[in-house]
UniProtKB/TrEMBL annotation:
InterPro entries associated with the record: Bact_solute-bd_prot1 (IPR050490), SBP (IPR006059)
Species lineage: Bacteria, Bacillati, Actinomycetota, Actinomycetes, Micromonosporales
Protein name (record): Carbohydrate ABC transporter substrate-binding protein, CUT1 family
Transmembrane segment boundaries: none
Organism (species): Micromonospora citrea
Signal peptide coordinates: none
Gene3D superfamilies registered for this protein in UniProt: Periplasmic binding protein-like II
Length: 443
């Protein structure tokens, strides 16, 4: 879906803004270090005249509704600043953004994922926000340090997390209760998880597979590597060798032979990452791999109760991970205003209450505390509880993936499919992947 909205037009006046914390939903004033971007002293940028910023993000209709409401809140406080909005589903989003970048007409404010942040930073497509962070016009002091680091490329802050998420298992709790199979325990090993999935398949008499085949899922592979002391990347190079990848493929080959996973055709449909095709939604498997912040969207697609569980392996293999970022266009005519809008989206209490957990846990720890208890949607509450339970168990955060990461992701999926189809053995597929992936990172 793609939608272009009429501008959220400024009223034309230009009063100075004071984002007073006590005015936010009647909230009490917090001590220093409270909600970012809400201090009495901090005013909006002093540009004169009406300003219209173009904004572009990916997501569904619910995200569009919430984001538009928050941008209207900003305009209410800054009547001379309006927004021209465009949004669409994730399919084709980055292709469209790449076309805009090639033509030099990128929107002022964009949503990016970690697959594109480093590339857009090194190509100087996104705005360097470091000066606004340095003087706290963009106040990131209440972000977890690892989450802040995950928006830095070559020492520059080029994006601010729009939310925090984690790779997770999404479970069909209704199905598991009916089959009498307990949910997998936190901290189980990957072979134990495969054994659990086989148990699910047997309990359903083969009608439902235990798990999605994650052999081509970079999130699961990255977590598996970190649980063994490795990593997906070391700087701008791969952080693993062909032997490790072959072992990963062999884990899933054994899972397929034991009927822990469904048919290759079903797996390939789900590999598209389209929510409606996820096996936990279609009923083809009891567990899928997804981002924790996607739970509400997945839940809306099924009548079964869905829940979240940590991935197999050490919980500390997880880290404070940005679900996506807000970033500015390097060529914007209003960089200070863009930075201020990002500050509002990520550090304002009232904005956080409206956005909820659609993009994940609010990046600001202060805003998380402020909005605690205001979320009423059951699936959002489950996602928030999952994130809170992980908070004190996370490991150190790496930097965002290097330029070439989208190609590496695609190559991993392609290699996994060749093994699933029998077109290549695990070692041959792993070796070919290494050569092609290293070339993608070098280019």
């Amino acid at each position: 879906m793609s939608a272009a909205r009429r501008p959220l037009s400024p009223a034309g006046a230009a009063p100075g803004r004071r984002r007073v914390l006590a005015a936010l939903l009647g909230a009490p004033v917090l001590a220093a270090g409270g909600l970012t971007g809400c201090s009495e002293e901090q005013a909006a940028p002093t540009e004169t005249g009406p300003i219209e910023l173009s904004v572009f993000w990916y997501g569904g209709a619910k995200r569009a509704e919430l984001t538009e409401r928050v941008l209207r809140l900003y305009t209410d406080r800054n009547p001379r600043v309006g927004f021209r909005i465009t949004w669409q589903g994730v399919d084709g989003y980055h292709d469209r953004l790449a076309t805009q970048a090639a033509g030099g007409n990128v929107p002022d404010l964009i949503q990016l994922d970690d697959g594109m942040l480093a590339e857009y930073a090194r190509r100087e497509i996104v705005l360097d926000l470091s000066e606004y962070v340095a003087d706290h016009r963009l106040d990131v002091r209440t972000l977890p340090p690892g989450l802040l680091r995950y928006g830095q490329v070559d020492g520059r802050t080029v994006g601010v997390a729009a939310g925090q998420t984690a790779a997770a298992l999404v479970l069909n709790r209704t199905l598991l209760r009916r089959l009498g199979v307990p949910e997998p325990d936190a901290g189980i090993s990957w072979p134990e998880y495969v054994a659990w999935a086989r148990r699910v398949t047997r309990a359903s008499d083969g009608r439902v597979a235990g798990t999605m085949d994650a052999s081509g899922d970079y999130r699961a592979f990255w977590h598996w590597l970190r649980g063994r002391g490795g990593d997906l990347y070391r700087g701008r190079q791969l952080g693993f060798d062909a032997e490790a990848l072959a072992e990963w493929f062999e884990l899933w080959r054994d899972a397929r032979s034991g009927r822990a996973t469904p048919s290759a055709a079903l797996v390939e449909q789900a590999d598209s990452d389209v929510p409606a095709r996820q096996l936990v939604v279609t009923g083809a498997a009891a567990a899928s791999f997804a981002w924790s912040h996607q739970l509400p969207e997945l839940q809306r697609l099924t009548d079964a109760e869905l829940g979240l569980a940590v991935l197999p392996g050490p919980v500390a293999a997880q880290w404070a991970r940005a679900s996506m970022y807000w970033a500015g266009f390097h060529g914007t005519r209003h960089p200070a205003v863009v930075a201020d809008v990002i500050n509002f989206l990520t550090g304002n209490g009232e904005a956080g209450a409206v956005l909820g957990h659609d993009r994940g846990l609010n990046p600001s720890l202060a805003v998380r505390r402020y909005v605690e208890g205001t979320i009423t949607e059951p699936a959002q509450k489950r996602a928030a509880a999952f994130g809170a339970a992980l908070a004190d168990r996370l490991g150190p955060a790496p930097g965002p993936p290097p330029q070439g990461h989208p190609r590496v992701r695609a190559l991993l999926l392609e290699a996994a499919e060749t093994v699933r189809s029998g077109a290549a053995g695990t070692w041959a597929a792993a070796s070919r992947f290494m050569a092609r992936a290293e070339a993608a990172l070098a280019g």
